[in-house]
């Protein structure tokens, strides 16, 4: 269950990173409020996962999901550049996440 919570927290990190684009430096009320709520829920879920997953592993997985997810969303929605080097780097992040899950006994 801790891993599912951590995965959801990572997805929420992707969501708040994307929402941050619309806040105009946290000056727009609605997008800023949505972003801050997503940040808080994501951090809360990360903290719940820390009850059963080592902090280094959980943080690396959480930030890795957020980073990889944000890159993919940027490519799909914002027409950011798609290149083999970028995709290889995202793949390495995902391999690291899978590797951390495999070596953790939680």
UniProtKB/TrEMBL annotation:
<dbReference type="GO" id="GO:0005886">
    <property type="term" value="C:plasma membrane"/>
</dbReference>
<feature type="transmembrane region" description="Helical">
    <location>
        <begin position="58"/>
        <end position="78"/>
    </location>
</feature>
<protein>
    <recommendedName>
        <fullName>Guanidinium exporter</fullName>
    </recommendedName>
</protein>
<dbReference type="InterPro" id="IPR037185">
    <property type="entry name" value="EmrE-like"/>
</dbReference>
<dbReference type="InterPro" id="IPR000390">
    <property type="entry name" value="Small_drug/metabolite_transptr"/>
</dbReference>
<dbReference type="GO" id="GO:1990961">
    <property type="term" value="P:xenobiotic detoxification by transmembrane export across the plasma membrane"/>
</dbReference>
<keyword id="KW-0472">Membrane</keyword>
<feature type="transmembrane region" description="Helical">
    <location>
        <begin position="27"/>
        <end position="46"/>
    </location>
</feature>
<keyword id="KW-1003">Cell membrane</keyword>
<comment type="similarity">
    <text>Belongs to the drug/metabolite transporter (DMT) superfamily. Small multidrug resistance (SMR) (TC 2.A.7.1) family. Gdx/SugE subfamily.</text>
</comment>
<keyword id="KW-0813">Transport</keyword>
<keyword id="KW-0812">Transmembrane</keyword>
<dbReference type="GO" id="GO:0022857">
    <property type="term" value="F:transmembrane transporter activity"/>
</dbReference>
<dbReference type="Pfam" id="PF00893">
    <property type="entry name" value="Multi_Drug_Res"/>
</dbReference>
<keyword id="KW-1133">Transmembrane helix</keyword>
<dbReference type="InterPro" id="IPR045324">
    <property type="entry name" value="Small_multidrug_res"/>
</dbReference>
<feature type="transmembrane region" description="Helical">
    <location>
        <begin position="84"/>
        <end position="103"/>
    </location>
</feature>
